[in-house]
Specification:
Elements: H1 8-12, H2 20-55, H3 57-66, H4 69-84, H5 87-108, H6 112-137, H7 142-161
Length: about 160
C-alpha cells in the first residue's frame, strides 16, 4: 500500500485564499496598468512625429477636407493639447503604470508589499499629471483623484484583513 506524505508546512502555514472582490479589482487594475503603460509609451514614442504632422499645413488641410468643421476643430484641439505636453510626462507615467502593474501582481499573490508599490505609483501618477498635464492645460484632476482614492481604499481593506 502506498503511503501518502504530507508537507507539514502546508498545514502549519496555509496559503490565504484571495477573496473574489480582490480578484475583481486586481483584474481591473491589471487592465488599467497594462493599457496605460502601453498607451503612454506609444505617445512618448510618437510625440515628435505628431508634432511634425500638426505643424504641416498641407497635411492639416487634407484632414480638414475629410472632416466637418466641428470634428476637425475638436480633433485639432485635442491633439494640440496632448502634444504640447512635454514628452517626458508620457515616459514617466508609462514607467509609473508599470510600477502600478507590478504592485497589483504582488497583491494578486496576497503580498502586502504590492499595496505599497501600487499606492506609491498611483500617487506619483497623480503628482505627474498635476505638474505636466492639469496645471498647464487648466484641467481638473478630481476624477483621477476620486478613482485613485477608491481603488487604494478597496485595496487597503484587503491589506489589513487578508494580505501577508
Amino acid at each position: 500500500m502506498e503511503e501518502v506524505q504530507y508537507d507539514n508546512e502546508q498545514f502549519l502555514n496555509p496559503k490565504p485564499q484571495r477573496p473574489t472582490m480582490l480578484s475583481v479589482i486586481c483584474i481591473l487594475s491589471f487592465i488599467s496598468g497594462a493599457w496605460n503603460a502601453l498607451y503612454n509609451f506609444c505617445l512618448f514614442g510618437m510625440h515628435d512625429t505628431f508634432n511634425k504632422m500638426l505643424a504641416d499645413d498641407e497635411m492639416m488641410e487634407k484632414l480638414s477636407d475629410m472632416m466637418s468643421g466641428a470634428q476637425y476643430e475638436a480633433m485639432q484641439s485635442v491633439y494640440h493639447t496632448m502634444f504640447s505636453i512635454d514628452k517626458v510626462y508620457y515616459l514617466l507615467t508609462s514607467l509609473l503604470y508599470v510600477g502600478s502593474f507590478v504592485g497589483v501582481m504582488f497583491m494578486w499573490k496576497m503580498r502586502k508589499t504590492g499595496f505599497h508599490i501600487y499606492a506609491i505609483s498611483q500617487i506619483l501618477i497623480l503628482i505627474a499629471a498635476a505638474l505636466f498635464f492639469y496645471g498647464p492645460t487648466g484641467g481638473s484632476p478630481w476624477m483621477d483623484v476620486i478613482m485613485t482614492a477608491i481603488f487604494i481604499t478597496w485595496y487597503f481593506t484587503f491589506y489589513k484583513k487578508e494580505m501577508q
